[in-house]
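PROTEIN DESIGN WORKSHEET
SECTION A - STRUCTURE
LENGTH: 368
TOKENS:
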């Protein structure tokens, strides 16, 4: 409740940041995890700065070369468009990389809490021995930094192409080559339009049949029931051939979705890059699982409290062994009963020990 209130009270940039990552005072990131992300962020910053310094030099050299061209104004406009598109792509790529790192911190925190609760759904199909996980955990930092760099360039290349094409179209929109390309694209789209419209209509018609004709209206989400069985068999035969067209379009979208998700989550080794059943082949994901399991094994709250109880018990035992000697020496001097005073002092010491020491153990971590 306090976290939700803090998120609702945030304004401006903090409110936008809370949509990506919301800090929690009851959780602390490990030093290795934070150090890894800091090093990755510094390297990405150096890449961006190096890009601007290098391409600024090439831009000046290009402007000097354009002065000797027959049409220097057109050459300068083209050069400004190219380098402007690349600058925009680099800025967008840097922002996306920062957002991905922040969201990676949030997902890592959720994974830690899931393992604290004993939930392992996000890697239930990955079978790695505990001994192998300990060895794989050593690779986490290097793999994460390397994949952050690769993910940066995976975002940079398509963004440069998109921004460059958009910039050239805007600058040279009224020229003959651009108009010719647009006319060719228009003809191709018009020729492919009937197939797309037919596929969309068939898709809507099948949705209508599944929701209103073949499904049980009284208990639609409890069990699988098929009404109008004869019509269902006829529809299965009728749509057998038309679904081939839908299959081609679905296959094209499947490839595009795979490429898009692969580019987006290349910098995130907490997401398996391979399909279910082959996730063990993703060495970066297995390295993250090793780091996560080792971290949870050495920072689980139940284990830490249990260890603290053992420490308190051992200290109380040492106190119990030392108190009789002290009380017996005091009793001989004061003439009092040593048994009664020993029990009283031991009880007070045990109470103060548990009240003062039985607290939540603190790790040497960095607050997230």
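SECTION B - SEQUENCE
RESIDUE ASSIGNMENT:
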């Amino acid at each position: 409740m306090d976290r939700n209130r803090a998120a609702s009270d945030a304004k401006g940039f903090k409110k936008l940041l809370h949509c990506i990552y919301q800090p929690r005072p009851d959780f602390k990131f490990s030093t290795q995890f934070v150090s890894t992300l800091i090093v990755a962020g510094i390297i990405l910053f150096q890449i961006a700065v190096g890009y601007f310094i290098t391409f600024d030099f090439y831009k000046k050299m290009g402007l000097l070369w354009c002065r000797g061209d027959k049409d220097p104004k057109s050459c300068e406009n083209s050069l400004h468009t190219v380098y402007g598109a690349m600058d925009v792509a680099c800025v967008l790529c840097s922002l996306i990389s920062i957002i991905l790192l922040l969201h990676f911190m949030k997902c890592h925190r959720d994974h830690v809490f899931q393992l604290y609760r004993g939930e392992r759904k996000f890697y239930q199909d990955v079978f790695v021995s505990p001994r192998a996980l300990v060895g794989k955990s050593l690779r986490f930092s290097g793999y994460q930094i390397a994949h952050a760099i690769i993910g940066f360039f995976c975002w940079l290349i398509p963004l440069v192409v998109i921004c460059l094409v958009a910039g050239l179209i805007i600058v040279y929109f009224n020229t003959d080559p651009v108009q010719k390309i647009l006319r060719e694209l228009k003809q191709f789209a018009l020729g492919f339009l009937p197939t797309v419209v037919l596929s969309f209509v068939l898709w809507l018609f099948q949705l209508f049949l599944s929701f209103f004709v073949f499904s049980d209206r009284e208990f639609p989400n409890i069990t699988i029931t098929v009404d109008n069985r004869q019509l269902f068999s006829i529809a299965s035969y009728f749509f057998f051939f038309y679904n081939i067209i839908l299959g081609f379009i679905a296959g094209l979208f499947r490839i595009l979705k795979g490429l898009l998700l692969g580019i987006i989550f290349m910098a995130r080794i907490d997401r398996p890059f391979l399909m279910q059943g082959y996730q063990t082949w993703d060495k970066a994901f297995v390295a993250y699982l090793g780091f996560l399991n080792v971290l949870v094994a050495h920072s689980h709250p139940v284990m830490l409290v249990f260890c603290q109880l053992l420490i308190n018990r051992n200290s109380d035992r040492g106190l119990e062994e030392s108190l009789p000697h002290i009380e017996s020496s005091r009793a001989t001097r004061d003439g009092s009963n040593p048994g009664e005073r020993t029990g009283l002092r031991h009880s007070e010491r045990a109470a103060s020990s548990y009240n003062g020491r039985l607290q939540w153990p603190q790790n040497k971590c960095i607050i997230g």
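SECTION C - NOTES
Residues 338-368 have pLDDT under 50 and may be disordered.
The CA atoms of residues 247 and 253 lie 10 Å apart.
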